[in-house]
Automatic annotation (TrEMBL):
SUPFAM superfamilies cross-referenced by the UniProt entry: NAD(P)-binding Rossmann-fold domains (SSF51735)
Cofactor: NAD(+)
Protein known as: SDR family oxidoreductase
Keywords, comma-separated and alphabetical: Decarboxylase, Lyase, NAD
Domain NAD-dependent epimerase/dehydratase: 3-238
Keyword match Lyase: yes
UniProt-listed InterPro entries: Epimerase_deHydtase, NAD(P)-bd_dom_sf, UXS-like
């Protein structure tokens, strides 16, 4: 297969490009490096079948050559990035999604949208299955991300219904692993950075809010299954093992051996209190389930952060 991966220089995108190449597919990677880094794909540039094109997906796009699948991951994704790039986030979800849907339509290719658990907002239903419609504040500071993804889902379904495009939607829950950026504002990377720097881990609220953390290799297997499927989804992809943020902090402290403790700050606006995916649909229709326990995933992630040395703790990690 020849697969177009938008956002391929990012955290998830670079792991996906690698996995596609490893199974013999060729990859056309598009990225504007607004939050990704070419360092993430440096190793792939010499791999036969890999091509990188620096491109902003909000610009109309004509693909050189054919495509069998288009995977749309390009979007500012961490709170740090979407607060810094609010209009760009809305554009990536709207114009960017439409440009890639047009590409998929033109090539009769499979289209996979990387949506998010944020479409559920601060959920009133717990745990969240795909039939839950969400509780999103449309004008709050997080809305640029949440609503962009909700619009992207609507657009994908409209192209499926009116243009016959083979679309599939995955709603990704918190994923962590090597190549997260130290300063991206996500809880796992922030905790690891702080622990390795000997600083107290910052907890917003009292730490009783929950999240479920999926290791990147598990998530990438889910994306591959979605590329190979013709199911429309949406499918939740995430680890249903729910942990409190405080438990995560304790685990990071024990994994790193840090003794820097924790400090508590007020909860940000619209921060969801509970998050846990129901994944029975992905289990049944994609045969997917996560396999890497948090303890093991954290060990691998901490070891990667350590291998980055200074970069993981300083400006270079931004
Ligand atoms: P990331 O920031 O590491 O990667 C996103 C990539 O998209 C970056 O390389 C960035 O430079 C690129 N990009 C952004 N806007 C672009 C544009 N207009 N044109 C071209 N490239 C552009 O984030 P990630 O964690 O790898 O997330 C990838 C996708 O998965 C995103 O769509 C995100 O919403 C979704 N997602 C991720 C998570 C997670 O936990 N990592 C959870 C839910 C959803």
């Amino acid at each position: 297969m020849r697969v177009v991966v938008s956002g391929g220089c990012g955290f998830l995108g670079s792991h996906l490009c690698e996995a596609l190449l490893a199974r013999g597919d060729s990859v056309h990677c598009l990225d504007n490096c607004s939050s990704g880094r070419t360092a993430n794909i440096a190793r792939l540039l010499s791999v036969p079948g890999f091509r990188y094109q620096e491109w902003d997906v909000t610009e109309p796009f004509v693909l050189p050559g054919r495509a069998d699948a288009v995977v749309h991951l390009a979007s500012p994704a961490s709170p740090f990035d979407y607060h810094r790039l609010p209009l760009e986030t809305l554009a990536a979800g709207s114009r960017g999604t439409e440009n890639l849907l047009r590409t998929a339509a033109h090539h009769s290719a499979r289209f996979v949208l990387a949506s998010t658990s944020e479409v559920y907002g601060d959920p009133l239903a717990h745990p969240q299955d795909e039939d839950y419609w969400g509780n999103v504040n449309p004008i709050g500071p997080r809305s640029v991300y949440d609503e962009a993804k909700r619009f992207a889902e609507a657009l994908s379904m409209a192209y499926r219904r009116s243009r016959g495009v083979d679309t599939g939607i995955v709603r990704i829950f918190n994923t962590y692993g090597p190549r997260m950026r130290a300063h991206d504002g996500r809880v796992v990377s922030s905790f690891i950075r702080q622990a390795l720097a000997g600083e107290p881990l910052t907890i917003f609220g009292d730490g009783s809010q929950t999240r479920s953390f999926c290791y990147v290799d598990d998530l990438v297997r889910g994306l591959l299954a979605m590329i190979d499927s013709s199911a429309p989804g949406p499918f939740n992809l995430g680890n249903p093992h729910e942990r409190t943020v405080r438990e995560l902090a304790e685990l990071v402290l024990s994994t790193t051996g840090a003794s820097s403790g924790m400090r508590f700050l007020p909860l940000p606006v619209d921060d969801p209190v509970r998050r846990r995916p129901v994944i029975s649909r992905a289990r049944e229709e994609l045969g997917w389930h996560p396999a890497v326990p948090l303890e093991e995933g954290l060990r691998r992630t901490v070891s990667w952060f350590r291998s980055q040395g200074e970069d993981s703790a300083t400006e270079a990690g931004r």
